[in-house]
Design goal:
This protein is mainly alpha-helical. The chain is 64% helix and 1% strand.
Length: 539
C-alpha cells in the first residue's frame, strides 16, 4: 500500500512538472531558431485583397496555431544552456507574449485608427517604427529617385494596397477608444500631404500608373477621414489600458521589472532631480555668459560642424566607447537643419544653442549603423524585436548617455551646456509621467500633455502643439514607450553599478570603454536581459 501511495505521489509530481515546466532536454538551440522562424512567419499576416489581413476572423482562426507555437516554446528545457542562449529563449517568449497581449487587450486593429497609416516618409531612429505599425507600410525614405523598374513595380504594388486596406479598416475598427480615435484622424491628413509630396517628388507623366494609384490613394484616404469624423461622434470609451494591464505588459512583454506604481515613483523622482540639478547648475554658472543661439544658416553650419568634431573627439580621445568608422558618417547624416528662431520646437531650441546634448542622444544612429554593418551573431537579435520591445535599450541608452557623457567631461569647456542636458531629462520625465496617468485613465491625453508642458523647464514646450500631440498620442498607442527613456536609463545605471561592483570583487579594473563595448555587443534587447548577459547570471 505504501509503495502504491509513493508511486501515485511520484506520478502526480511528474505530471505537474510536465504541464508547467519546460522540460524537453532533446530540444536544442537550433530548434529554438526554427521555432523563432516559424513564429515570425506566423506573426506576418496573410494578404486580403492585396493588404495585410487584420480581420477578427483571421485572428480567431489563427488562435490554435498560436497556442501550438506557445506550447512549443514552453516545451524547451533551457536551464543548462549558456546564458546568452537562454536570453534568446526569453526574447522569443516576450514577443509571443506581445502577440497575446495585442490579441486580448491592445487590439490596435480594432481600437487604433492610426494603425492603418501606410505612408512613412522618414527612418525611425530606433530599430523599427515607434508604436503599433501594420505589416504593409510604404517606406518612401528607402526609395532612390528616380525610380528604377523594380522600384516602380514595388511602389505601385504598395500604393495599390492602400484603398482595400482602408476599406478593411472600416470593418475592423469596432473599438470605443475615444482619444485614440480622434487623434488618429490627423495621421491620415498627414498621409494625404505625404501622397501629394510623393507625386510631386517622383515627377512622372500625368497618366503614369503610379500617379493614378496615388490619386486613388488620396481619394480613399479622404473618404476614410470623413468616415472617422462621422464615427467619432459615437465613441465614448477610455483609451488607456489600465494599471493592471500596463504592469502585466511591461513585466511580460518589455521585460521591465516594475509596476505602474514603481514607474510613477521613478519618473517623479527623475523629474524632481532634473529640476533641482538644473537650478544648481544655473547657480554655479550665474557669472558665465549665456549660450548664444545660432540665428543664421552660416552660424548653424559652423555650430554643428564644430559639434560633430567635439563629439567624435570626445569619444575617441577620452576612451568613452570603441570608435568605429561608421559612427561619424551616421552622425553626419543627422546633424539637423537650420530653423528660424520663431519656428524652433523643443529639440531645435537646444540644437541651435549647443548640438552636443542632442548628438549624445543620437547614439541611436550608431545602433542602426551596427545593425546594418555588423549584424548580431544571434538570428533572434539580428533584426528589430516586435512590439517595440527594444525601447528600454534604445531609448534608455540614448537618454542615459546624455547624462553619462556630461559626467564624463563632455562639457568641461562649455558648462552652460549642462543646463540643456537637465532640461532634456526633465522633459522626458514629464512626458512619461503624463503618459502613465493617461494609461491609468486618470488623465485625458490633453491633461497628460499639460503635465508635459508644465514641467518642461524654461517653457520650451509651450509652442509645441504638433510635437506634443505626436508624442502623447504615440505613448497612448504604445504602452511603456513614453516612460522607456527614463526606466531604461535607470536600468542602465543599475547595470553600470552592478558591473563595476562585479569587477571590483574580481579585482579587475573598470573602464567605461569596456562597459559600453559589452553593453552594445548584447544587441537591441530589453535592458533586463542585457543585465543578465553582462553580469553573467540570471536572477
Amino acid at each position: 500500500m505504501k509503495k502504491l501511495l509513493l508511486l501515485l505521489i511520484l506520478i502526480s509530481c511528474s505530471t505537474t512538472r510536465d504541464e508547467n515546466t519546460p522540460n524537453n532536454k532533446s530540444l536544442n538551440y537550433d530548434d529554438l531558431i526554427q521555432l523563432f522562424n516559424d513564429w515570425r512567419n506566423f506573426e506576418n499576416p496573410p494578404l486580403l485583397d492585396g493588404a495585410p489581413n487584420y480581420t477578427k476572423e483571421r485572428f480567431d482562426n489563427d488562435q490554435n496555431k498560436f497556442i501550438k507555437l506557445r506550447e512549443r516554446l514552453n516545451s524547451f528545457y533551457i536551464e543548462e544552456w549558456p546564458i546568452n542562449k537562454q536570453i534568446d529563449w526569453h526574447i522569443v517568449k516576450a514577443e509571443i507574449n506581445g502577440y497575446d497581449f495585442n490579441y486580448r487587450v491592445l487590439k490596435p486593429w480594432e481600437r487604433d485608427p492610426a494603425f492603418y497609416q501606410t505612408i512613412w516618409m522618414y527612418q525611425s531612429d530606433v530599430p523599427a517604427h515607434e508604436g503599433p505599425t501594420n505589416h504593409g507600410v510604404l517606406e518612401f525614405w528607402m526609395y532612390e529617385i528616380p525610380l528604377d523598374k523594380d522600384s516602380e513595380n514595388r511602389i505601385l504594388k504598395e500604393l495599390k494596397s492602400i484603398t482595400p486596406f482602408l476599406d478593411q479598416a472600416k470593418k475592423n475598427l469596432i473599438g470605443n477608444a475615444k482619444e485614440l480615435w480622434d487623434a488618429g484622424i490627423q495621421n491620415f491628413r498627414d498621409q494625404i500631404d505625404n501622397l501629394i509630396y510623393i507625386r510631386r517628388t517622383l515627377n512622372l507623366k500625368e497618366d503614369n500608373k503610379i500617379n493614378v494609384e496615388i490619386d486613388r490613394a488620396i481619394s480613399s484616404t479622404k473618404s476614410f477621414i470623413t468616415w472617422l469624423e462621422k464615427e467619432s461622434k459615437n465613441k465614448t470609451g477610455p483609451s488607456g489600458i489600465g494599471k493592471e494591464n500596463y504592469t502585466w505588459y511591461q513585466k511580460n512583454v518589455h521585460l521591465l521589472p516594475m509596476t505602474w506604481e514603481d514607474e510613477v515613483r521613478l519618473l517623479q523622482r527623475e523629474l524632481d532631480r532634473a529640476w533641482s540639478s538644473l537650478k544648481l547648475e544655473e547657480h554655479k554658472n550665474r557669472d558665465l555668459p549665456e549660450l548664444i543661439p545660432a540665428n543664421t544658416e552660416k552660424d548653424f553650419k559652423n555650430l554643428t560642424e564644430e559639434g560633430v568634431r567635439r563629439f567624435i573627439t570626445f569619444i575617441k580621445d577620452k576612451d568613452i566607447m570603441p570608435f568605429k568608422e561608421n559612427m561619424e558618417p551616421a552622425l553626419r547624416e543627422h546633424m539637423g537643419k537650420y530653423v528660424p528662431e520663431d519656428e524652433r520646437n523643443f529639440f531645435n531650441i537646444g540644437l541651435h544653442l549647443d548640438p552636443l546634448p542632442l548628438y549624445s542622444h543620437f547614439v541611436h544612429w550608431f545602433d542602426l549603423a551596427e545593425i546594418r554593418d555588423n549584424p548580431h551573431e544571434s538570428p533572434i537579435r539580428r533584426k528589430a524585436l516586435l512590439y517595440n520591445i527594444f525601447d528600454t535599450k534604445n531609448e534608455g541608452y540614448a537618454t542615459g548617455v546624455e547624462e553619462m557623457f556630461m559626467h564624463a567631461g563632455l562639457y568641461n569647456d562649455s558648462p552652460r551646456s549642462k543646463e540643456i542636458v537637465w532640461i532634456m531629462i526633465a522633459q522626458r520625465a514629464a512626458r512619461g509621467l503624463g503618459s502613465l496617468y493617461a494609461h491609468a485613465n486618470e488623465m485625458t491625453m490633453q491633461e497628460a500633455g499639460g503635465v508635459h508642458v508644465k514641467w518642461t523647464p524654461r517653457r520650451w514646450m509651450n509652442r509645441e502643439p504638433h510635437l506634443l500631440q505626436f508624442e502623447q498620442h504615440l505613448y497612448l498607442r504604445q504602452p511603456g514607450y513614453g516612460t522607456s527613456y527614463i526606466t531604461g536609463k535607470y536600468m542602465i545605471e543599475k547595470i553600470l553599478a552592478e558591473y563595476a561592483e562585479k569587477l571590483e570583487k574580481e579585482d579587475r579594473e573598470f573602464t567605461l570603454k569596456e562597459f559600453f563595448k559589452n553593453f552594445n555587443d548584447t544587441g537591441n534587447i530589453p535592458v533586463s536581459l542585457v543585465r543578465w548577459e553582462m553580469l553573467d547570471k540570471i536572477d
